Amino acid sequence: MVSPRKKEGMRINGRMEDKTPYITAQLVIGSLKINKPVEFQIDPGSATTCILDKDCKRLRIDYSRLQKCEDESVGIGGTCQTFETANAALVFKCNDDSLCHEMLDRIFFLKHSDSNNKRTRATMILPSLLGRDIILRYKLFLDRKKVYLEK
After folding, report:
1. Residue 98 phi, psi dihedral angles, 5° rounding
2. Which domains, ranges and CATH numbers included, belong to the chain?
């Protein structure tokens, strides 16, 4: 007797680079007229999904249109100003070519200080971060060669 094949869940494939997991999503924020792809480092250490300096510059983020948070964020790039906006969405392409829409109550935009040119250059290479606000909606599979999120 042959057992029925288990139906594969909705899978979003990422990629591994230098032992670091990445995944791409379309960032959609209607109020800011943003609808562009962003590559995220999958970061279970980040509670909230964050767009970092490099992508903020590429997306031409106007910080004056965002709400400034009272507290600064702290990470490997040091402390930085934190801004947020509500009603954002991430749209992922699934392994079956369908689209998976994930709504975010808020998303952070980080802005490092321009006071130290060497540090500013270093922070401009840091990737945006996919945080636990999205990761915990999925099962995360991660090994040396592949990474994916699955429902």
Report:
1. -80, 170
2. 11-145 (2.40.70.10)
**CA separation for the pair 81, 41 (Å, rounded):** 20
Residue with tokens 């099962």: 139
Nearest in space to 29 (alpha carbons), one of 2, 69, 56: 56
Q: At residue 147, what is the residue type?
A: V
Give pTM, 2 decimals. Answer: 0.85
Query: Which DSSP string corresponds to 37-60?
Result: EEEEEE-TT-SS-EE-HHHHHHTT
> What digits encode the pLDDT tens for the residues 66-100?
999 887 677 665 677 899 999 899 999 999 999 99
Closest listed residue to residue 125, CA positions, set 77, 89, 59: 77
